[in-house]
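Tokens help. One example:
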Amino acid sequence: MNSTIAYSVVENVLLVCAGDDTPTDEEFSQMVQTIKDLHSSVTGILILAGTKRPTSKQRSEMTAVLQSRALGLALISESRLARGAITAIGWFVQGVKSYRESEILQALSYLKADPSHTERIISKLRELQASLALDQTA
């Protein structure tokens, strides 16, 4: 089975690309554990969402980890459902916001990413997308 999530840290931002299938609970839990284990220098998470949203259990798991760490989260998606799921998480956790794909620079600014790292971050997002065999939209 192919991975449905790929992630990597670039400077102070954890980049997460989600594929076009709902992540397995195991894969999602591994990502959540990675978030728990992040070095304190990581201050934000940028998620490039696929076409499927996480399950309610997975959203609860993400909400819990975000409540336990002071991390900003920016979701990039054209899907109203995905942006709606982030809005719902935002009811319980501060620092969570969604953006359209054309607003990636605003999302990086929201996460306080150093503008000098923008090109590197976008390049890494493309790499992560390619590893999931997604259309390259970033």
